[in-house]
């Protein structure tokens, strides 16, 4: 019978706070990239999720994700044994209080919903977003977390590796982002007006906060203050190699090393190493960073080719980076780093790649299909998109009755 | 009286102000504008997407002078604002119909 470990508990309390801090970091990262008339609207998408998803998580999200489930359904979804976080206090999860685990996982749910909003920037009705976020958090995020991380989940049982959320967080949010970009259509001014980021210093600060919080995200996923957490911490940091790769390939391809590129590259590396952080050697984390950095740079051009307006590149960075990271986990994973993990292709287990692919396809398909359905229904009921006039004035004034900057 | 409007490079403002002061012109108005002429704009790149920015930031200054100061003022602005590269700007001169100093009610060149 495991006992409570105070060191583990202290680290997980800190990790939960670190992961929460990623969401305001994301708000800064995203809102610096939109035009100034939409800075508050974009900030609100993330900040509001901190309230909305927290309450959803407490009411039904956690129990649907991490409840054991009943009968044959237990492979797909939890149960209602911890509805409203009842029966959580006093229980342990491993060596930490179940309450700490529940809060830690809740922070993941928040940032995953917030990540989607990069695709809906500058044109989605706030009301429609709130309804979508609610449905998505309950019916997409919770089941997916159950599949991958709950010991009864079918992907967990299959042996697909996802240390900290490459499929659950990054692929699922990117798939929802793709669905939303398609359903919403392009911003009116895309390609005609100059759609410039209005505050890149804020975006870079946001990327820095994400990097900082990611230590809680990945090293916290060890669920203990131990060697595995140290390993994941190290790998997380080293995947910043993506920053170098992005900057290099951008300089060769477009001519200049942009600061937005450097910030994007850092985030891409952190995304890429997320599923691998607790399974690979440090050198492999650097390789993952380098490969993902190059791939995500070229991932930006996907939206232009297919003509969807993924405004802040959720698909290009979280979709491409999450997918590649999950695949490369199947290449570089080794049980010398994590006994509870599995070996990958490089360590004599090529079939791990297939398991990773199953996880990848499942996350893309499940999130994309349900997102399309939710968005279609919301569109019929209340409309997804603001009017042309509102879009032109900016969502800050029209949807929130405020302006981000008043200089006088 | 004439009104002289000049579009100049932003960093030339102090030089122009001093050149005008040196020939006895005691006031001016300046504001930030954007525009384009023969000088081309520039390209900005955001996450792989290139944007051409046609409008170049400039300053516009306005001074109203007595008729006999026009040639000297135009010359002073021209010499002070010149860098010999495309984009140095232009000077336009118009008739000014009247001038009134609000504090005293003085009119015409007295008010300048």
Label this structure with key terms:
heterodimer, A: 408 residues, mainly alpha, Ammonium transporter fold, two-stranded antiparallel sheet, 16 helices, 2 strands, B: 112 residues, alpha+beta, four-stranded antiparallel β-sheet, 2 helices, 20% helix
Tell me what you see in this structure.
The complex is a heterodimer of chains A (408) and B (112). Chain A has 408 residues and is mainly alpha-helical. Chain A has one domain: Ammonium transporter AmtB like domains (Ammonium transporter fold), CATH 1.10.3430.10. Helices cover 66% and strands 1% of the residues of chain A. Chain A is built from 16 helices and two strands. Chain A has helices spanning 6-31, 39-66, 98-116, 126-149, 154-158, 166-184, 200-219, 227-238, 241-254, 259-273, 282-299, 302-306, 314-332, 351-382, 388-393, 395-400; strands at residues 92-93, 96-97. In chain A, strands 1-2 form a two-stranded antiparallel ribbon. In chain A, α1 (6-31) runs antiparallel to α2 (39-66). The termini of chain A are far apart. The mean pLDDT of chain A is 96. Chain B is an alpha+beta fold and 112 residues long. Chain B has a single domain (2-111), classed as Alpha-Beta Plaits (2-Layer Sandwich). Helix content of chain B is 20%, strand content 36%. In chain B, α1 packs antiparallel against α2 (70-81). Chain B is elongated, with a radius of gyration of 17 Å. Chain B starts with a strand and ends in a 17-residue tail after the last strand. At the A-B interface, α9 and α10 of A face β3 and β4 of B.
């Amino acid at each position: 019978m495991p006992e409570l470990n105070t060191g583990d508990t202290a680290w997980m309390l800190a990790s939960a706070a670190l992961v929460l801090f990623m969401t305001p970091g994301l708000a800064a990262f995203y809102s610096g990239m939109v035009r100034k008339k939409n800075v508050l609207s974009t900030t609100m998408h993330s900040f509001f999720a901190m309230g909305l998803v927290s309450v959803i998580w407490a009411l039904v999200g956690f129990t649907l994700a991490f409840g054991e489930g009943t009968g044959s359904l237990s492979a797909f979804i939890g149960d209602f044994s911890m509805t409203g976080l009842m029966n959580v206090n006093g229980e342990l999860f491993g060596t930490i209080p179940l309450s700490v685990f529940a809060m830690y996982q809740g922070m993941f749910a928040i940032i995953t919903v917030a990540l989607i909003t990069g695709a809906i920037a500058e044109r989605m009705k706030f009301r429609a977003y709130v309804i979508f976020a609610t449905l998505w958090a309950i019916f997409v995020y919770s089941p997916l977390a159950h599949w991958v991380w709950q010991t009864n989940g079918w992907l967990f049982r299959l042996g697909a590796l996802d240390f900290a959320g490459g499929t659950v967080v990054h692929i699922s949010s990117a798939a929802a982002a793709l669905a939303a970009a398609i359903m919403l259509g392009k911003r009116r001014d895309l390609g005609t007006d100059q759609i410039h980021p209005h505050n890149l210093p804020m975006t870079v600060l946001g990327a820095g906060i994400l990097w900082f919080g990611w230590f809680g995200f990945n090293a916290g996923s060890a669920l203990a203050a131990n060697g595995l957490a140290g390993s994941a911490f190290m790998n997380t940091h080293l995947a910043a190699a993506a920053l170098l790769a992005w900057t290099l390939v951008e300089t060769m391809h477009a001519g200049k090393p942009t600061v937005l590129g450097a910030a994007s590259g850092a985030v891409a590396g952190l995304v890429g190493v997320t599923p691998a952080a607790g399974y690979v050697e440090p050198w492999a984390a650097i390789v993952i960073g380098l490969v993902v950095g190059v791939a995500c740079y070229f991932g930006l051009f996907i939206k232009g080719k297919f003509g969807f307006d993924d405004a802040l590149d959720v698909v290009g960075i979280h979709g491409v980076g999450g997918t590649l990271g999950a695949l490369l986990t199947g290449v570089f994973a080794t049980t010398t780093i994590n006994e509870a993990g599995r070996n990958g292709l490089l360590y004599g287990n090529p079939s791990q790649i297939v398991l990773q692919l199953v996880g990848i396809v499942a996350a893309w398909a499940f999130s994309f299909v349900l997102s399309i359905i939710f968005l279609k229904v919301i569109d019929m009921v209340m409309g997804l998109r603001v009017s042309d006039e509102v879009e032109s004035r900016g969502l800050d004034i029209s949807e929130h009755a405020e302006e981000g900057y008043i200089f006088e | 009286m004439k009104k002289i409007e000049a579009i100049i490079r932003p960093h030339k403002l102090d030089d122009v102000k001093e050149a005008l002061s040196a020939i006895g012109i005691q006031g001016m108005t300046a504001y930030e504008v954007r525009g384009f002429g023969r000088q081309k704009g520039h390209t900005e790149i955001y996450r792989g997407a290139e944007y051409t920015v046609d409008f170049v930031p400039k300053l516009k200054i306005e001074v109203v002078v007595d008729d006999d100061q026009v040639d000297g003022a135009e010359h002073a602005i021209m010499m002070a604002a010149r860098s010999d590269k495309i984009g140095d700007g232009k000077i336009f001169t118009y008739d000014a119909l009247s001038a009134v100093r609000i504090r005293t009610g003085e009119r015409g060149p007295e008010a300048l």
